[in-house]
Every structure is written in C-alpha cells, then in structure tokens.
Design goal:
The chain has 69 residues and is mostly helical. The protein has three helices and no strands. Helix content is 88%, strand content 0%. Helix 2 runs antiparallel to helix 3. The chain is elongated and about 50 Å long.
C-alpha cells in the first residue's frame, strides 16, 4: 500500500514546506504588525508543525528509498 503513495510524497513535502514558510513569512508578520498575539502564536505553531512534517516526510522518504526500495 505504501508503494502507491511514494510517487506523491514529493508533492506532499513541497506543500508542507511551502505552506509552513508562507505562514511564517506572511501570516506571522501580519499578526505581529496588527498586535494579534493569539493568532500569531497559532500561526507560529502551525508553521513549525508544517515545516517539521515536511522535513520528517522528506527524511522518511529518503530512508525508505535508500534502504528499503
């Protein structure tokens, strides 16, 4: 079952990393300028979770392709 999704993992990694970067770069700075502390905190958490998931997915995909493929 996992073999079917290997071809789509590159897109998932790109989406996680790009959305995390966008949230950190645009949304977080907008909330900081408008002095919205709760929204800024939520955006920061969301961005770092997206970036972490993108990194974990990328490393996991690389390990899978390198050692188990």
């Amino acid at each position: 079952m996992l073999v079917n999704f290997v071809g789509y993992l590159n897109y998932v990694v790109f989406l996680f990393l790009s959305s995390g970067g966008y949230i950190l770069w645009i949304d977080r700075s907008k909330y900081t300028d408008d002095n919205m502390k709760k929204e800024r905190t939520a955006a920061t958490w969301s961005a770092w979770i997206n970036l972490s998931l993108g990194g974990i997915t990328f490393i996991g995909s690389w390990i899978y392709k390198r050692f188990f493929w």
